[in-house]
Amino acid sequence: MTKASSAVSASCRYRPLVLIDTDEVVTAIAKTMAELTSGQDGTIRQQLIEQLMREVMNYDAEFRRDAGTGGIGSDARH
């Protein structure tokens, strides 16, 4: 393995440390969902919120599996 390919390989295994204000992210998602569902009736709004929650839980499980197997995270479902 050459130095260049070794550096590329190493950079693919590690993600840079990024500090994210999770409160801002959650607030942004909540505002977006409120805006998207404001014209919907209560039943449809509740279904969309539940769908979002399921997706969050699915991604959480996927990232936890990847972390447990040494993976970095999946880009497969974007």
Tell me about this structure.
This protein has about 80 residues and is mainly α. It has one domain (about 20-78). The chain contains three helices and no strands. It has helices at about 5-15, 20-35, 40-70. The model has no long low-confidence stretch (mean pLDDT about 80).
Set out the fold topology.
Layout: H1 3-13, H2 22-37, H3 42-68
Which structural traits does this protein have?
single chain; about 80 residues; mainly alpha; about 0% strand; flat
Sum this structure up briefly.
The chain has 78 residues and is mostly helical. It has helices spanning 3-13, 22-37, 42-68. It has one domain (20-78).
Helix-strand topology string: HHH
Q: What overall form do the CA principal axes indicate? A: flat
Intertermini distance: 32 Å
How is the main sheet built? none
Structural class: mainly alpha
Q: Average pLDDT across residues?
A: 80
Helix content: 55-70%
Q: Radius of gyration in whole Å, from Cα?
A: 18 Å
The residue ranges in which pLDDT falls below 50 over 5 or more consecutive positions are none
Q: What is the number of domains?
A: 1
